[in-house]
Design goal:
It holds the Pfam family HTH_31. GO terms for molecular function: DNA binding. The chain has 264 residues and is an alpha+beta fold. The protein folds into two domains: 89 residues, lambda repressor-like DNA-binding domains (434 Repressor (Amino-terminal Domain)); 155 residues, Beta-Lactamase (2-Layer Sandwich), CATH 3.30.450. It contains eleven helices and five strands; from the N terminus they run H-H-H-H-H-H-E-E-H-H-H-H-H-E-E-E. Strand 4 and strand 5 form a beta hairpin.
Length: 264
Amino acid sequence: MVRDEWSGLGAYLRHHRSETTPRDRPGASPLSHRRVPGLRRQELADVAGISVEYYTRLEQGRASRPSREILTALARAFRLSNAERDHLFRLADERPPRPRAPAAEIRPGLRQLLDSLDDTMPVTVHDGRLDMLAFNVAAADLFGPLFDDGPYGRSIVHQAFMSAGLREVLGNEGAEQLSRVAAAEFRKALGLYPEDERLRSLFRALSTSSPEFSGHWDRGEIGTWRSAKKRVNHPTRGLLAFDSEMLHDPENDHWVMLFTPRRA
């Protein structure tokens, strides 16, 4: 690795150390008087659990390639976001760690967006494991009855292949489209979260109980469909048509689906 890249790592560490205030460290006194901002090298090394000599060499670009364990400890000490942690790993010529799971709750601002669009369009939010996390009032009016509180009741994949009322709501063409997309997205989810036991259990359940799932799975498709046209049979309003668009929050691995009404 060329020295400029190591210098980039050192500069990144120095920057974050200068942004980490002493009071962020448990037990530190907020009354400490300092001539420079941030933590001292010794303090940062103590928080990360590494020697100050080694940390100093990292900042100065004189250390050997840091291990993944060292990088993880530094990311934790600096309280880096996932994106900041991943950049730290790349600067050290390491592949960023795989996420263990999507965030369990959506951001408050995203919740506010859902509520503000109640009278405008249906909006849903699901995570990278294809679990439905939230939907606004307009979306509940369309899709709420399809989801239940069973062990896989919030799984879009499970509903795509096991919901008895799906074809009545989406029609044959729409249900087939959802099945194809769900299988392809499910393959992607298993690749992102291979140790997730709930996903693995769902795969076993669908493989043994749904020939339709097995057929789609054997096609080997994988990917994300960002845009689509959807038709929904509403029990009182008749056939409704929407242009759907998906937006991704990579920090939390949440997907926001917006349904813009159009003429059927």
